[in-house]
Amino acid sequence: MPEPTHASGARLIVSRNPADLTDIVVERPLGGVEELVAAARAAHGAQPEWAAWPAPLRGRTVQNTGRLVARNKEALAGLITREIGKPYGEALGEVQEVIDTCDFFLGEGRRLYGQTVPSEMPDKQLFTYRKPLGTAMVITAANFPAAVPSWYLVPALLCGNTVVWKPSESAAAVAEALLALFRAAGVPEDVLRLVHADGDTTYAGLGQCLEEGLVQKIGFTGSTAAGRRVSELAGRHLQSPCLELGGKNPLVVAEDADLDLAVQGALFSGFATAGQRCTSLGTVLAHRAVHDEFLARLGAAVEDLVVGDPRRDEVFYGPLIGERYLQGFLSSLELVRPHHRLSGSTATGRITGDSPRKNFAGDPDTGVYAHPTIVAGVRPEDELYRTETFGPLVSVMEYGSFDEAVRLANGHGYGLSAAIYTDSPRTAFAFRERCSAGMISVNNSTVGAEAHLPFGGNGLSGNGSRQSGIWVLDQFTSWQSVNWDYAGTLQRAQMDVREI
Ligand code: UN1
Questions:
Q1: CB-side exposure of 49: number of CA atoms within 13 Å?
Q2: DSSP assignment of 164-176, as one string?
Q3: Which residue in 133, 241, 200 sits closest to 462, CA to CA?
């Protein structure tokens, strides 16, 4: 199909409902490099005035945003369901995460604390202040089209930065709806600008913005490959972006685990959101004493999952986010075929068009669905062990010793989220200590982080930057330290300090 164009000749974003591809949610002209740079210029120009607003007043806009989002919760969740196929119950949870983020930061407008620090000399005071960085470019993914953007936008704005936001093309309508609520909450137009652009335009525009000194911080959520490109651009300008990248998140089932709980955890971690969370479960590592039993129970549970129309209550997960995502997932399945036996009858690998599952509740002719897949017998040398699949696919591996479990949990190079199911605090704490992931769950899922804990990963999952809670303030401010000397004579640090 030729690429659609706007009357003006511009290329179009066509965002479709993935449960019914004939339903076009929104069509917008794609911005070019000029639009992106012009937005950054406007935001950069508006920043000093925004930073001069008293922080409690900026906090008020955050409070207003949270209230407006709460008032429009169902409508926003409905739009998320329609645009990216997230089951409505989960979409409500996502909108709640935006509200929680606003709740957390509205008070920060009255804190944004600095410190008073003792000096080594008399008649001198030391202070620290948080200063906004300037203008942030925030680039977000489609799988959490409201919550994850709010993790960047809310603290960035609260701290006195202005923002250019480039949302996913697959979630253009949700982005516009959220933007409208920020506006209605009192955030001025040039303080938060939104531009629709494709990947190549974004890299080119970002590069130019950095060259021209228009962007002082990048917030990026997306794939590790894209994060690397963003990081390279930032690094040339000595900037450290806030990165939230992929994962190959392990879930360890220890010998003493409550297997029913572990199965529920694996099911939710692996298949909720059709496995399209950065924190989704990649590989179950099951102790050899429980491996076969666990696999059988997980298989039976997967068999009962209802997949289909995301508006229906009984549906566990809906379609993938869009056609491009289905293609990506299909190519991940290629990694499965040569090597592995699929576990029992549950591990179908059947995709739309193949024989339907017994619990399919969608329309495979209009939607882009992927059936749940479990792959047993994965080995550390397999590509699947180290490849994020971003879809409803869970690998299962067997381990013998705790050391082996730790090695397998860390060995793929990602380090976002990990879970362990065990009854032993000693095992749980030892795992926490030795696991390289940024987020660890004990007897809970790899997904579902709460909105006020540090969120982020290490290794291929990110550069150690963290979002959420007070920790994200360090991403959007820099510390300014102040020496205030009222001795009236020159006091030299290190040299004029009294000896004892
Ligand atoms: C993501 O997939 O990019 O922890 C974020 C979770 C959600 C956020 C996921 N609160 O599963």
A1: 10
A2: EEE--GGGHHHHH
A3: 241
Query: If you search the block for the tokens 């795992």, which residue do you land on?
Result: 431
Size of the chain in residues: 500
Nearest residue to 165 via CA among 215, 207, 200, 204 = 215
Going by C-alpha positions, the residue among 154, 119, 114, 115 that lies closest to residue 131 is 114
Q: Which residues are catalytic?
A: 244
Per-residue confidence (pLDDT) for residue 358, from 0 to 100: 67
204 CA to middle of ligand 1, Å?
28
> Which ligand 1 atom is the nearest neighbour of the CA of 97?
10
Residue 136: partners with Cβ closer than 8 Å, 6 or more residues away: 152, 156, 161, 162, 163, 164, 215, 216, 217, 218, 219, 476
Residue 121 tokens, joined: 């000399």
Please state whether beta strands 162-166 and 192-194 pair in parallel, antiparallel, or not at all (unpaired).
Answer: parallel
For residues 63 and 185, what is the distance between their CA atoms, to the nearest angstrom? 8
Q: Which residue has the tokens 């004493």?
A: 289
Which DSSP string corresponds to 313-346?
Answer: TT-SB---SSHHHHHHHHHHHHTTTTT-PBPTTT
Please tell me whether residue 37 adopts helix, strand or coil conformation.
helix
| pLDDT, tens digit, 9 for 90 and up, residues 353-401 | 334 456 788 887 889 998 888 998 899 999 999 999 999 999 999 999 9
Q: Could you tell me the pTM of the whole model?
A: 0.95
Nearest-CA residue for ligand 1 atom 9 is 277
- Report how far ligand 1's centroid is from the alpha carbon of 279 (Å): 6
Average pLDDT over the chain, rounded to an integer = 93
Mutate-to-test residue for ligand 1 from 152, 447, 453, highest number of ligand atoms within 8 A of CB: 447
Decide if 384 contacts 378 (C-beta within 8 A): yes
Question: Which amino acid residue places its CA nearest to atom 7 of ligand 1?
Answer: 448
CA angle 194, 197, 199 (to 5 degrees): 130
Ligand 1 neighbours by CB, cut-off 6 Å: 97, 143-144, 148, 221, 277-279, 447-449
Reported ipTM exceeds the 0.85 cut: yes
Q: What is the pLDDT of residues 259-279, one digit of tens each?
A: 999 999 999 999 999 999 999
- C-alpha Rg value of the chain to the nearest Å: 24
Given the CA of residue 276, which atom of ligand 1 is nearest to it? 2
